[in-house]
Amino acid sequence: MKVLVIGQGGREHALVWKLAQSESVSQVFCAPGNAGTQLDGTNVAISVSDIPKMVAFAKEEAIQLAIVGPEVPLVAGMSDALRAAGISVFGPSKAAAELEGSKSFAKQMMWKANVPTAKSETFNNFEAAEAYLEEREEQPLVIKADGLAAGKGVLICDTKQEALDAIKSLMKIREFGDAGRTVIIEEKLIGQEVSILAIVSGSTIVPLETSQDHKAAYDGDKGPNTGGMGAYSPAPLVTPELMDEIIEKILVPMVNVMKIEDRPFNGVLYAGLMITNQGPKVLEFNVRFGDPEAQPVLMRLKTDLAQLLLAAAEERLDEIDDLEWDERPAVCVVMASEGYPEEYKKGRVIRGLGEAAELADTKVFHAGTTMKDDQVVTDGGRVLGVTAIGESISQAKLKAYQAVKCIRWDGAWCRKDISDKAR
Predict the structure, then answer these.
(1) 3-class secondary structure, 124
(2) Do the first three CATH levels of 190-319 and 330-422 match, i.e. the same topology?
(3) What pLDDT shows up at residue 175?
(4) Distance in angstroms (rounded) separating the CA atoms of residues 403 and 408
(5) Mean per-residue pLDDT for 4-9?
(6) Nearest CA among 417, 405, 227, 207 for reference residue 325
(7) What is the pLDDT confidence band of residue 12, given thresholds at 50, 70 and 90?
(8) How many other C-beta atoms can be found within 10 angstroms of the C-beta atom of residue 247?
(9) Of 203, 215, 288, 328, whose CB neighbour count within 10 A is largest?
(10) Looking at the domain covering 190-319, what would its CATH class be?
(11) Residue 194: which of 204, 207, 179 has the closest Cα?
């Protein structure tokens, strides 16, 4: 069958790479793709925001499965348009994607489902938010932009002044545009973060292997939040008993409440959790594969991904056998452009990709890259997701960083401590 992956990041490259390994797949298209998806599939120059053109291409090529990678087209209704054209789609409807498109909506659903999460208040008026903060005692808080902000609209504030500055930057200065029109002010949860991704179709929930993302820019979880500077899988923190609790108290209630609200979920339900002393609590929900979590998780998946996602799209997920996994852990290190997550330059030539590709048990997933004059150049803040699998977390980490050392461009940098929390 012909498959279309929509998006252009590291997650989409990982999807294209894994789908191309399926015996049932004849061709994988990626729209618009990047320099890496061009190697493992066929790029199509269609923007993720051009829904009519995407639908026309899918019909013209008789696409049998479309997979919508990023949150922006999901929130805009890409899945609905493709389904209306008779194409099997893996990805939630616009109504269901609001779980990620609006953090205040997600909070409402969590309260309705009795899902554990941080205490919070929502404001769409700056003066009201400011007055609320002024009246509170000094305590660490998290300020969140309600809308989509490419993983960067979460500001962790240890003092009242930092919180006041955060609401000003979101609501007054509009650092993230309309995403900050409404803000959520919530208590700061203490613990370790884990990412739980599950394939959902109807009432069937198939959890994937666990992973842990590294959101902060710099070593030791310092610096501003980013879209993710690396990830590893599995996360030893999540024991089988804890996973059962997460399924019972978080995933099942959320899937059920979405059905009750007439927003049935089909796609990846991603729960970003903090494992606190009181148990797992939800930080946020996403409605697609995580990036960079998809890279190490998909590297470990042995089950045919195309058949798995097609079964979900066709609401046959309950017919799928238990997923098979490589027992070995995998580590993904994100290489970024100088200046990220703030301003950065594009168009810098990347060297050493061939050298890195020769290393065993390693795959360099492209995120912010493109081709220019037959050379791979930078085209984003997070440029590459260098991913390796090994007999242990430390061996996988060593292999990933050996590949990182092969790759160079002006201003390239990465965190040096990805996966250290697993020890």
Answers:
(1) coil
(2) no
(3) 85
(4) 11
(5) 98
(6) 207
(7) very high
(8) 15
(9) 288
(10) alpha beta
(11) 207
Q: In this predicted structure, what is the pLDDT of residue 173?
A: 81
Helix axes 10-19, 305-313, angle to 10 degrees: 100
Looking at residue 171, what DSSP letter applies? Answer: I
Q: Whose CA is closest to 230, among 421, 391, 99?
A: 421
Question: Model pTM?
Answer: 0.93
Strands 192-201 and 204-207: antiparallel
Q: Where along the chain do its domains lie? A: 2-93, 125-181, 190-319, 330-422
Structural contact between residues 414 and 229, judged by C-beta atoms closer than 8 angstroms: yes
Quick one: 277 exposed, middle or buried, by C-beta within 10 A (0-12, 13-18, 19+)? exposed
- Count of all residues that appear for the chain in the document: 423
Task: Examine the pLDDT at 55 and tell me if it is beyond 80.
Answer: yes
**Which residue matches tokens 């953090």?**
103
Give the residues across from 376 on adjacent strands.
371
Beta strand 382-389 with 362-366: parallel, antiparallel or unpaired? antiparallel
- Residues 164-186: tens digit of each pLDDT: 899 998 988 888 888 888 999 99
Kindly state the tokens that stand for 379. Answer: 């085209």
| Ramachandran category for residue 279: left, alpha or beta (phi over 0 → left; psi -120 to 50 → alpha) | left
CATH fold label, 125-181: Dna Ligase; domain 1 (3.30.1490)
Q: What does the pLDDT look like over 87-107, one tens digit per residue? A: 999 999 999 999 999 999 999
Q: Which residue has the tokens 């996966």?
A: 419
In CATH terms, the superfamily for domain 330-422 is: Phosphoribosylglycinamide synthetase, C-terminal domain (3.90.600.10)
Contacts of 420 (CB under 8 A, 6+ apart): 397
What is the side-by-side strand order in the sheet with 65-68?
A: 42-43, 27-32, 2-7, 65-68, 89-90
Q: Where are the beta strands (DSSP E) in 311-418?
A: 330-336, 362-366, 369-372, 375-378, 382-389
CATH topology of domain 2-93: Rossmann fold (3.40.50)
Question: DSSP state, 114?
Answer: T
Return mean pLDDT, the chain: 95
- pLDDT tens digits along 300-312: 999 999 999 999 9
Which residues 6+ apart lie within 8 Å of 113 measured at CB? 253, 254, 256, 257
